Amino acid sequence: MEMLINVLVQIISGAVGGNVAGMTKQSLGTGLNTLLGGVGGLVLGQLVSALTGTSGGEALDVAAVGGNILGGGVGGAVLTWVVGFIKQKLDAR
Questions:
Q1: Please, which residues have CB within 8 angstroms of residue 53's CB and are 6 or more apart in sequence?
Q2: For residues 93 and 87, what is the distance between their CA atoms, to the nearest angstrom?
Q3: Assign residue 79 a region: left if phi > 0, alpha if psi is -120 to 50, beta otherwise?
Q4: How far is CA 64 from its chain centroid?
Q5: Are 14 and 48 in contact (CB under 8 A)?
Q6: Rounded-to-integer distance, Cα 74 and Cα 57, Å
Q7: How far apart are CA 5 and CA 49, in angstroms?
Q8: pTM of this prediction?
Q9: Do 52 and 10 touch, CB atoms closer than 8 A?
Q10: Per residue, what are the HEC states of 26-63?
């Protein structure tokens, strides 16, 4: 059950991070910002969880949830910004 909570926290914080990154010129629209943010949040959130040793789902403490929120938010923001940047450069051609 804790594993499901960790994944949901990563996806939600990634979606928020994607929408924050979408407030720049690299916005892809609310739907794509949210979708890419969720995917990026899940990927980087899982990576951070694996690196910090909280990926087993056995602990639902402040450090694990904080790592999920931070990793998910940053992952969502980075993926959304990178895809938006690439799209902006391709549209400028």
A1: none
A2: 10
A3: alpha
A4: 15
A5: no
A6: 21
A7: 13
A8: 0.88
A9: no
A10: CCCCHHHHHHHHHHHHHHHHHHHHHHHCCCCCCCCCHH
Please name which of 90, 55, 66 lies closest in space to residue 13, comparing C-alpha atoms. 66
Q: What is the largest CA-CA distance in the chain?
A: 50
- For 9-53, the pLDDT digits (tens) are 999 999 999 999 999 888 899 999 999 999 999 999 888 888 877
- In angstroms, the CA 53 to CA 39 distance is 21
Tokens in use for 75?
């992952």
What burial letters (b/e) apply to 12-51, b meaning 16+ CB within 10 Å? Answer: bbbbbbbbbbbeeebbbeeebbbbbbbbbbbbbbbebbee
* Number of residues assigned to the chain: 93
